Amino acid sequence: MLKTFPKGGVHPPENKLTSAKSIKRMAVPKVVYVPISQHIGIPAEIIVNVKDAVEIGQVIAKSGGFVSSNIHSPVAGTVTKLDLIIDTSGYKKQCIVIRTDVKNEANFQEIEYPLVKDIILEPKAILQKINDYGIVGLGGATFPAHVKLNVKEGTVLDHLIINGVECEPYLTADHRLMLEKAEEIMVGVEILMHALNINKAIIGIENNKKDAIDIFKKLTQNNQKIKVAALQVKYPQGGEKQLVRALLNREVPKNGLPLDVGVIVHNVGTIFAIYQAIQHNVPLTERVVTVTGKKLENPANYWVKIGTPITDLVNEVGGLPEGTRKIVNGGPMMGKAIKNTDVPVTKGTSGILVIADDEASRGEPKNCIRCSECVFVCPMGLEPHLLMNLSEKGLYERASAEDIMTCIECGSCSYVCPSHRPLLDYIRFGKQIVKKLNTAKN
């Protein structure tokens, strides 16, 4: 029987339109817009000036603190502006604008890096390099990788979990990366095991990616330390707490981390980025992005330079079709609609989803009928209907007491609600207020 997490979850239509499409390489844009806050934590500090010439991979903004991350130039060119632009969050953020030059011509084609299996760096040097090269979690959270890997002395770790689930509908960036860079990902796993002194690793992949499961089972057939686990297809299995429970039957504490139960979890995209940094001295300046939608002319997966305007990606797949209602940064469950396509790709951009009128319309919200569907599907065991009501009425202290901050914002509650109530919208808003109140108290 396939493993899964026991509490809640849903199975929306998968719509993996691009799962059979190999990753293409986007042409280097004429201008890139590089935000200095592409990670959870403190924004990086700009260290370049207008008119400065920059090279590919050069640090242009340094980590602003422990929970922060370096930003590197994705192109060779000239800094033309240090400006405030609207990013995928919908808010204006500080940004470095770079006009590219002819040095990027050789970068139109993917560089064929040889597979390097030998790990020569000591653990401390590996962790420092992950910090220096701006690696963050590429599964969506963008948590600085060096912070997650900074394990306190005395902490007992026994498993590294590799998240190859990609349970969000439509998105196939991780799936394609696993198919095309499996050997490199395997080396990346071994690099982290060496750095953390962990002897066991599990690669968790949902069973709708049988080709990826087969590849990794073949690569691990003689490896006693790294195993592959096929998982039942259920959303939001890619959540860290859900994945740890599914694979190891360990319950991460309510306000805790996988670290509390002896586990570290990393996404396959992050593992590949770590491999590139350690074995080839390549900082995180590009990522795989799925550009998809049922009405798009040619949905596809692309290697994209950080800072590339989303307009370029949409044009690459044939432009916005008539009747487009929404453009979503991410997938349909956890992604957020963006105002326009002028915003840039960041380290956290896993996909761009174009949704037509007939798919995007919400039903008219009605009164709650007390059916408890939202409670049944909540993977965190919360009462979404209650949390929405408390947020709507401004009862934030009560919302905090009802564990609103443990919500992972998966959207399962809104998905199943027969009354079309905007549960997640209100819970997200309530979480923001509670977070501010808690910060003020401290």
Q: Uncertain segments of ≥5 residues (pLDDT<50)?
A: none
Major beta-sheet overview? 6 strands, mixed
Counting helices, strands and paired strands, the structural category is: alpha/beta
For CATH, the homologous superfamily of the domain at 123-280 is named as NADH-ubiquinone oxidoreductase 51kDa subunit
CATH topology of the domain at 123-280: Rossmann fold
Distance between the termini: 47 Å
DSSP summary, beta strand count: 17
* Arithmetic mean of pLDDT: 94
Per CATH, the architecture of the domain at 123-280 is 3-Layer(aba) Sandwich
**Strand order across the largest sheet:** 1-14-13-17-15-16
Radius of gyration: 21 Å
Percent helix, as a range, is 25-40%
Number of helices: 14
Q: How does the overall form come out from the CA principal axes?
A: globular
How much of the sequence lies in strands comes to 15-25%
CATH class assignment of the domain at 123-280 = Alpha Beta
